[in-house]
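About this split. The held-out portion is used to measure sequence recovery: a designer receives only the structure tokens and must propose an amino acid at every position. Recovery is the fraction of positions where the proposal matches the reference. Here is one held-out target exactly as it appears in the evaluation file.
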């Protein structure tokens, strides 16, 4: 039996290639976030790359270096600063939980029934979860450096060989020519819709709420801005679940001006989603909120903070390929 397998050189070669491929994939798992991060950045900056290489006639290498520098300045450095600030502010939350006790007493003095706010749950579960979600890339400096180095290394070659990569992807997509073209078009629309229709709106809402919290004298604005970004992904509930209790606290404690101001600001921030999302959905298509929520949970669990961006994209691509698969092969089976 073994000798027959060994005589089949094609089969042996296929087994060796498969084993080596699985080994490479398994060994790359700790750094897979760098791959997806580079892929997303290359896609975002693809219009700029085309502008520099086709219209301005710059070389591909120079265009790639310019995009890398821009990525470092406007994405990576602010992200590092934000995450470091989040880590500092999350770690001091337990020290500030004494204010919850004061709020609990004031609420119970007003309401006819007793309200109990669970501070122990916050200390034992919420804070460790947030810390674990934020710190993976910064807990090991050597690994962090390796991830960022690999990200920019891949980004450089993704930009230089963007056309060749598109052709390779086109060849390996297991569908007919029509569905291949549709898959590539859908891939583009899903990526833009996810990035613009979900992440950009979430970042805008989180940033605006954090700025208003700052002017209202609320501490830990980086932390609350981060929480607002996460909550903005939740349909129906969204950011109001954050600012409504704060506004209620201001009204209960006699700070009527701040409470009314926060209510007005919260409503205005909510309208951003109602205005921008339909425009983006009309242009690029709609991503179901369930895809975003599942993707965020998977992404944060697997990749940490950057998983907020990677997770929903992976789930959206899975849904896309499943749809293409049904259209392609169900037709054949029915025939």
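Reference sequence for scoring:
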């Amino acid at each position: 039996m073994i000798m027959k397998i060994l005589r089949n050189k094609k089969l042996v070669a296929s087994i060796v290639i498969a084993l080596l491929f699985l080994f490479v994939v398994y060994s790359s798992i700790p750094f897979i976030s760098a791959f997806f991060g580079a892929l997303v950045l290359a896609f975002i900056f693809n219009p700029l790359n085309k502008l520099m290489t086709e219209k301005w006639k710059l070389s591909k290498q120079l265009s790639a270096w310019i995009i890398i520098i821009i990525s470092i300045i406007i994405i990576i450095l602010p992200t590092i600063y934000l995450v470091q600030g989040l880590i500092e502010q999350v770690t001091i939350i337990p020290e500030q939980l004494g204010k919850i006790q004061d709020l609990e007493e004031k609420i119970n003095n007003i309401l006819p029934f007793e309200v109990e706010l669970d501070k122990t749950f916050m200390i034992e579960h919420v804070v460790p979860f947030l810390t674990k979600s934020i710190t993976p890339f910064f807990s090991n400096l050597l690994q962090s450096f390796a991830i960022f180095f690999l990200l920019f290394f891949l980004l450089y070659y993704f930009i230089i060989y963007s056309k060749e990569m598109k052709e390779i992807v086109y060849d390996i997509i297991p569908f007919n020519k029509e569905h291949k073209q549709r898959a590539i078009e859908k891939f583009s629309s899903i990526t833009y819709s996810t990035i613009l229709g979900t992440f950009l709106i979430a970042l805008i809402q989180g940033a605006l709420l954090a700025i208003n919290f700052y002017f209202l004298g609320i501490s830990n604005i980086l932390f609350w801005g981060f929480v607002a970004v996460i909550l903005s992904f939740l349909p129906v509930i969204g950011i109001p679940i954050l600012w409504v209790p704060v506004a209620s606290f201001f009204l209960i404690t006699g700070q009527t001006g701040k409470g009314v101001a926060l209510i007005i600001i919260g409503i205005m921030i909510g309208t951003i989603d109602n205005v921008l999302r339909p425009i983006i959905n009309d242009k690029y298509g709609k991503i179901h909120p369930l895809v975003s929520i599942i993707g965020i949970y998977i992404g944060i669990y697997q990749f940490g903070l950057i998983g907020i961006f990677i997770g929903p994209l992976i789930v959206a691509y899975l849904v896309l390929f499943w749809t293409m698969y049904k259209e392609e092969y169900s037709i054949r089976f029915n025939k």
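Annotator remark: Residues 177-215 form the longest helix (39 residues).
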